[in-house]
Amino acid sequence: MSSSLTVTPAPPLTLPVTNSVTITEDDIKSYRENGYFVVPNLLSPSQLEQWRTIIFSAVNDRADAKYKFPIAGQGDSTNVDFEYYNNVFTQRINLWQSHNSVKQLLLESGSVIGKIAAELEGIDCVRIWHDQALIKEPFANPTAWHLDVSYWSFTSLHAISVWIALDDATLENGCMYFMPGSHKVTESRYYEENNELAEIKIGKNLSDVFTTYPELKQSPTIAVPMKAGSASFHSGHLIHGAGANMTPSRRAAMTIQMMPDNMTFNGKQNVITDERMKELKIGVSVFNDDNFNPILYKNS
What kind of architecture, by CATH, is found in domain 24-298? Predict the structure, then answer.
């Protein structure tokens, strides 16, 4: 797909690409207790328009290609029913690899987004694992409860994602839902099972997660509607999902999945290309190459 990709030129970035954000010790304490943290108005109206222009252009250029490079089985280990999953959202992954404008945008955001992630997780360096545009099309299916880090090619207690609303995310069009504190349960399981976690497939049954984590079945959940330009950070171990889009309009978000420095390969392909998979060794290969996992933020 990469040879036929048409890249639409983007205008030079207008800096800064996000508002300045300062988080407090109480914010950090809340994140570590609940597993998520919401930043209202991460983007100003003009910044939001810049993000929308760059991201939507990159999504359009990708056409029907989820990835730029060949990945066996579409690299999709997150679901068990493609027909259902393909109507959960339009998903375009690692846009930074095919569009320099997206790469510049994400890296310029690092002094705010990466710094927040580092402070919330208590780490010194944050790398991009992957990015993804997630667009719930009109009348799209809900996203079942799941946790992220079990799909990824590394294992860490400090994996974290940011979810940036490019459209208003409402109860009607499929906003995010979190299960506060559930990361503590999945992190405990991580220790119990020798740093491995069972994958929770995203399928038709919203409650499949409780087969693996029955102790969470009575846990409270919270809907997190957000205005366009706002964002939420959540732990890679937090159970979360999203509602159905019950409207005739799309609901778009841009996400960045992040990891600490020097994570080692655990054997899962996830977003790794077929060619690179041949070079990686389980427990030995380290994801510290800026060509594959750029540094978003480093505390100097």
Answer: Sandwich (2.60)
